[in-house]
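Researcher: I'm comparing several assemblies side by side, and this is the next one on my list. It has 230 residues spread over two chains. Same procedure as the others: predict the full complex and return the structure.
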Amino acid sequence: AQSVTQPDIHITVSEGASLELRCNYSYGATPYLFWYVQSPGQGLQLLLKYFSGDTLVQGIKGFEAEFKRSQSSFNLRKPSVHWSDAAEYFCAVGAYYGGSQGNLIFGKGTKLSVKP
Amino acid sequence: GAGVSQSPSNKVTEKGKDVELRCDPISGHTALYWYRQSLGQGLEFLIYFQGNSAPDKSGLPSDRFSAERTGGSVSTLTIQRTQQEDSAVYLCASSPKTGAYGYTFGSGTRLTVV
């Protein structure tokens, strides 16, 4: 069965510091991987996605993520965090069946706090 | 519409009452999903509609939960005889049929059962 693990429940970084949020997945085939961000009281916004090809994917708001098959990981990174990045981040893995996308399995999320 | 629209945004109901939550997906999106988000629990898959295919109901937690999608567009999630443990944010998302685009989420309905 598919599963996603986000080992860090809560991370605090200083503004301007670099960030890495960890995500590990379990899936029998090549996964489709996503990162979403949820600001307080808001819905989820797609940051970036990986389907195939280049294992380093760029997303919105200066985020990037790297797919490492050997480690079953899809970690999210940002070189310099801004106070507005404080939010909850969700990693998700999905499948693609017969031309249609199936449901995504989400991790439990990592809450990011940013110190001034 | 331009985005996924959910209504109501907030709903307070008494234990034992039935509630209906509505989702209006992005026009042209044939796939529609319902998730539940409880505090500290991440997102729990509930049900998935894809075009005219039978829905994937594997995530529904009990037979008190049901959902329908009329005309391949608007969906309604119904919770009968609500319990306090049903309190959560219910999120709807849609996506195009072809291509693994990820989802576009609505802002959710916050359900509080008192």
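Model: For your comparison table: The longest strand of chain B covers residues 42-50.
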